[in-house]
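Course assignment 3, question 2. Fill in each field.
Student: A.L.
Task: Predict the tertiary structure for the chain below.
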Amino acid sequence: MTTEELKALKSDKVVDARSMACPGPLLAAKKAIGDVDEGQIMEILSSDEGTKSDIPKWCRKQEFEYLGSIDEDGIYRLFLKK
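Answer field:
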């Protein structure tokens, strides 16, 4: 997806992991995914650069659709579809 398409997405669940260091954002996402129904979109907010590789790998392993990420002033917004 393009950056503009990602910005236009309506997230069904937002995980704010901006204050967490690796592996905190991934663990928070794993915990929160249980609240997301099939077909819904979850957004993870993180300030840890490692999250940009951790979340796509986890999505492939879990067979979730990784939609992409946006970098905004040191905050990473990562999107996935369950």
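Instructor remarks: The beta strands are 13-17, 41-46, 65-72, 75-81. The mean pLDDT is 97.
Grade: pending
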